[in-house]
Amino acid sequence: MNPLEAMRLALATSRAALPECRPNPPVGCVILDATGQVVATGYTRQPGSHHAEAAALARVEGPLAGCHAFVTLEPCSFHGRTPSCARTLVERGIGAVSVAIEDPDPRNSGRGVQILRDAGIPVEVGLLADEVRGFLAPYLLT
Ligand SMILES: [Zn+2]
User: Fold this and answer.
1) Cα-to-centroid distance, 34 and ligand 1 (Å)
2) What CATH number did the domain enclosing 65 receive?
3) Which residues are known to be catalytic?
4) What is the domain range of residue 88?
5) Backbone phi and psi for residue 56, each to the nearest 5 degrees, phi listed first
């Protein structure tokens, strides 16, 4: 599938996060391989368990250099109850990341994207942003 379809699937997947994910925002993640095939999807689980990215990564083994992750919200940069998803994506060697919207949470707010870029990973922000914001906005910390 193409990038827009992948982000649409990530948004659709994220709806399954509610209500168990609260008070965390309902986020979805889709990982495509180099040929555009879906290799994993994930969504935010209950607090203390996997965020969307970690849930998807847990379903994939081996190197992810040719893979592209699509996440509805900027991956978290801070270690809270779970490790930072941005750092986990770096450690797993993801090839590229697309993010629909930046996380306005003051603990994140661009830092997650920066961690990925500092590691040399291409990051695109803004894919399907309006649609994702319409769904996510009520759940975001600002
Ligand atoms: Zn996270």
Assistant:
1) 24
2) 3.40.140.10
3) 53
4) 3-135
5) -70, -45
